[in-house]
Here is the input.
Amino acid sequence: MNTISASQKINFGQGSLALLIGLVAGASSAIFYKDNNLVANEIHLGNPTLISNVVDEPKISPHQNAEIIKLLSSLKTNNDDKIPAFNMTNLGLQPFESLFFFDEFIKECVREHNGNRAEAIAWIATRLVEGNDEAFLNVLAGDAIHDAKTLIQVEDILKSQGNKYWHQFTEGALAQFALQNPKKGFLWLDNSKLEDTARSSLSLHYVEKIVDGLLTKHTSEALDALNGIDCPDEISVALRRSYYEKMARNNGEELWQTVIKPNTSPDVFCDAFESLFPTNPNKYADQLTASSITGEGRIKSEQILIHSWSQLAPERAFEWLTNNRHLLKSQTPMSPLFESWARRDSLQASSALLQLEAGDERDDAISGLVLGLYHSENDVAMRWLAQIADNEKRNTLENRLSKNLK
Here is the structure.
């Protein structure tokens, strides 16, 4: 068994030891020990620092080596129905000391499994899950994510052991991707072999961490990766939308230039447009009008524009809609716009309605106005109701109001 020299300095930029910093302390500060005195060193998670001249690293003593061998023996079982539990915290080691012990424990497990790292990691993971040791399970997962092949192999082994093992290990891997390499974590999440139900069970907390990590870099590669998502599961969709919302606030033009590409799927474009539009309605209304976006993406985006603008500034939505009606690809209804407008400023909405010529569009606008006024100005609403030219539309709306369905 190898021992760790006190003269060795540890680079926390890579490897499993870095991953417990913060976890053992419960925050962004890690606590180290030197001659039984506490030494505090501030560590910013996600940007590990080279630790040098801070502490004398504890040695793994012959006694501890023997404890590792003893522990390995105790965790072996021929009873497949009961996997032994293992909890590092219960070993009674100091936080910093436990890092070294666990690292040596992993190495010895790999040796026990004839150098097969994936089998060793999966073997430890099942025992950590049984011991409810989430912190060290995350450390173990963080060790595995550096090698994509190992990660896939570990997942396959754990899946054969039972859902609870590979679900918890996967969640740990996602947490560590969020800390270390959010872009890689996003790609792994989108391309992994997990079924939709498994992906949906993962904590959105970690998804948000990955989004935050991606956002700090604003790389075209990350945006292209997001643009490439085309699956319905809620994690991928939530990831994309959360990222777009933050990107729209920080660098909207870069987001627009990415999603305006011809190969962008309608769902991706609409998610981006829905995030972008409220940040600068006039700008993105003009850019949508002038764009070459066609088909479903164009129709949905126009509907998003009118719906969003109706809430923000209905008079601007009406102006844009009437000026660009000949350019629109969708038959955008006037009713929702005038319903919102009537609640904000009924006089302004009524005046705008007078600009519309008789026909379906005007009847639709009156319907919205009536719905917006019905509870606050009932008499005015009923007078407008009488002006709907289409008898069927007027009777349908009157029946709806009489049943107080609104």
